[in-house]
Design brief:
mainly alpha, two-stranded antiparallel sheet, about 50% helix
Length: about 250
């Protein structure tokens, strides 16, 4: 398209006014119609082209029920106005907070006030915290886990004073053993209900009282020997009560 065609389009679109010069060498005059231009607000649109968005207004404003598009943007044709599912960030924050509290509890059981050990090394890091849900998944209560941590540390510190494990997976091995023992003999892990009254035989009652006291003392220990002794005590208490008709 030559320059004359472009001029005709601008004139037809109302952008310019043309006064044709007359005669040989006569110059035509061109005047830009800024005030009268019906499409001046369309910016850089092609002259002569109709701006459908300007004619219909903001698509999001015309269709407020179609979603939350920003002003000045078009609504996607397949937008149904659905609400997005809430982010899982809040739930993840709750889990992270609970795991941090549990980490602090384990650090205190280890005799530490923070994640820096006396030797300057770090503990309770992400790899260590990854062990915490494994202990819960084994079906162990927090009290059982705490008892196992104390037992393992006491046993090792009897040989190496001030011992601290390099990784908390060291505790997980003990938790696995505790969970296995619990599965083998769940009765030994359950608290003993208090009998209704003393046994008629004074000697049997004295023995029963001694056994109950010993059973209570063993409740905080999760060693294999403690499990074995608890089984013996439970069996003996059952025998005493059965003999007395309790």
């Amino acid at each position: 398209m030559g320059h004359r065609g472009i001029v005709r389009r601008l004139e037809a679109g109302g952008w310019i006014a043309v006064k044709i010069g007359g005669g040989r060498g006569g110059k035509s005059r061109y005047r830009v119609l800024m005030g009268n231009n019906p499409e001046q607000e369309t910016g850089n649109d092609i002259p002569g082209k109709r701006n459908r968005e300007r004619e219909t207004g903001n698509a999001a404003t015309q269709n407020p029920e179609r979603g939350d598009t920003k002003p000045g943007t078009l609504v996607p044709p397949n937008h149904q106005g659905t609400i997005k599912e809430p982010s899982t960030t809040a739930r993840e924050a709750v889990v992270a907070d609970e795991r941090s509290r549990r980490r602090d509890e384990v650090l205190r059981l280890m005799g530490l006030d923070g994640v820096i050990r006396p030797d300057g090394r770090f503990t309770g890091q992400m790899t260590d915290m990854a062990e915490l849900p494994k202990w819960d998944a084994l079906g162990l209560t927090r009290a059982e886990q705490d008892g196992k941590i104390r037992e393992m540390l006491d046993k090792q510190r009897a040989k190496v004073p001030g011992f601290l494990p390099n990784r908390w997976s060291w505790f997980t091995a003990g938790m696995d053993e505790l969970a296995a023992a619990k599965r083998r003999d769940p009765a030994s892990m359950q608290p003993r209900s208090k009998p209704n009254g003393p046994l008629a035989d004074p000697n049997a009652e004295a023995e029963r009282q001694a056994l109950v006291t010993e059973l209570g003392a063993l409740r905080g220990s999760n060693s294999d020997a403690a499990f074995a002794r608890r089984r013996e005590i439970v069996s003996r208490l059952q025998a005493l009560e059965a003999a007395a008709g309790a």
